[in-house]
């Protein structure tokens, strides 16, 4: 009889478990599968946070067109404000001085080539490029400079940091190469000239010594 009671209890336990699983709407296999997939769902945000920028890198022409317009003396500085990040009227005046100094220094016209374009390590939405500048100045026909560009209204513009660096270089260069004003000659003194001092007169002759008396 004791054996019959154990068998009855075992059957009852099995029935209770089956009813509980049926009420929750899943089987033991489904429960195991759902618990095994939970860690993979938790790791999803990590992969999304390391995703690259959604857009492609700009073409070299998209960047060099910005520089060509900035260096064009026929375009006033007020029309170049959309080419520099955070530009204002003070920036417009500085850009006019920049193109004037470039023209007077014999650097215009300039051509540009953008190489090694990559996302900026300081701002992931900006790009860096090594720009090769070819000028009309025979003393410095070609030079390279790293430049940063930022997105603006579906295009690109020179970053504020790079623009300030270029304008500072132009300002320091023009101040060192500008000719210094020559000093005016010292005016001649006016009035009656003072006569030059004369030398000492001849020494007086010694008086004759008295003759001895004998």
Top keywords for this entry?
disordered N terminus; Low molecular weight antigen MTB12-like C-terminal domain-containing protein; single chain; 214 residues; four-stranded antiparallel beta sheet; alpha+beta; Nuclear Transport Factor 2, Chain: A; Mtb12-like_C; globular; signal
Please explain how this structure is put together.
The chain has helices at residues 2-24, 28-42, 44-49, 60-70, 89-104, 160-177, and strands spanning 111-119, 127-134, 142-152, 155-158. It has 214 residues and is of the alpha+beta class. It has a domain at 60-167: Nuclear Transport Factor 2, Chain: A, CATH 3.10.450. The chain has a four-stranded antiparallel β-sheet. A hairpin with a 7-residue loop joins strand 2 and strand 3. It comes from Mycobacterium intermedium.
The CATH architecture category of one domain equals: Roll
How do the SSEs run, as a string of H and E?
Answer: HHHHHEEEEH
In round numbers, the mean pLDDT is 73
Fraction in beta strands? 5-15%
Largest sheet: 4 strands, antiparallel
What's the total count of β strands? 4
Number of helices in the DSSP assignment: 6
Rg (C-alpha, Å): 46 Å
Dominant shape: globular
Helical content stands at: 40-55%
CATH fold assignment of one domain: Nuclear Transport Factor 2, Chain: A
Low-confidence stretches: 1-28, 34-51, 175-186
Query: What structural class is derived from the secondary structure elements?
Result: alpha+beta
Distance from N terminus to C terminus (CA atoms, Å) equals 193 Å
Q: In the CATH hierarchy, what is the class of one domain?
A: Alpha Beta
Strand order of the largest sheet: 1-2-3-4
Keywords: Signal
Family: Belongs to the MTB12 family.
Protein name: Low molecular weight antigen MTB12-like C-terminal domain-containing protein
């Amino acid at each position: 009889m004791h054996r019959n009671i154990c068998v009855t209890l075992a059957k009852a336990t099995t029935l209770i478990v089956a009813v509980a699983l049926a009420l929750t709407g899943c089987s033991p296999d489904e429960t195991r599968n759902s618990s095994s997939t939970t860690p993979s769902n938790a790791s999803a945000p990590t992969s999304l946070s390391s995703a690259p920028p959604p857009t492609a890198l700009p073409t070299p022409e998209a960047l060099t067109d910005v520089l060509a317009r900035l260096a064009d003396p026929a375009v006033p500085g007020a029309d170049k404000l959309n080419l520099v990040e955070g530009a204002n009227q003070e920036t417009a005046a500085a850009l006019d001085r920049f193109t004037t100094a470039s023209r007077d220094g014999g650097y215009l016209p300039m051509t540009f080539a953008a190489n090694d374009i990559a996302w900026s390590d300081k701002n992931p939405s900006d790009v860096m490029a090594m720009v090769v500048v070819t000028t009309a100045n025979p003393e410095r026909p070609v030079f390279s400079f790293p430049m940063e560009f930022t997105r603006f209204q579906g295009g690109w513009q020179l970053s504020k940091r790079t623009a300030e660096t270029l304008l500072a270089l132009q300002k320091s260069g023009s101040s060192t190469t500008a000719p210094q004003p020559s000093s005016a000659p010292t005016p001649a003194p006016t009035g009656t000239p003072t006569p030059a001092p004369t030398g000492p007169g001849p020494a007086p002759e010694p008086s004759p010594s008295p003759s001895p008396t004998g």
